C-alpha cells in the first residue's frame, strides 16, 4: 500500500495544512468539498501544492510530524522546489 504526506494551501503563499493519507485523491476531494471538519475547512485550505509517496505508514507519519514542526520558510521552500507556481496538483493526480 502507498501512503502520502501532503501539503494543502489556501492559495499562493497562503495558509498551509500538512497531512498524511493512504488515499490522496479521496482525501483531497474531502478537503475541497468541505467534508473535513476543522482547520482546513475553517481556513479554506483546499489546494494540493505538494505531496510525496511513502511505502511504509510509519515512515509517512514520521515525515508528516517532521514537516509539521518545520518553520514556514522551510515548508515554502519544500513546496517551491517542485511547484514554484503553487499550482493545484489535484488535477494531476485524478
Automatic annotation (TrEMBL):
Family annotation (Pfam families): GIY-YIG
GIY-YIG domain location: 1-77
Tree of life domain: Bacteria
Gene3D superfamilies noted in UniProt: GIY-YIG endonuclease (3.40.1440.10)
SUPFAM superfamilies recorded: GIY-YIG endonuclease (SSF82771)
Family, as annotated: Belongs to the UPF0213 family.
PANTHER family on file: BSL5627 PROTEIN, UPF0213 PROTEIN YHBQ
Stated name of the protein: GIY-YIG domain-containing protein
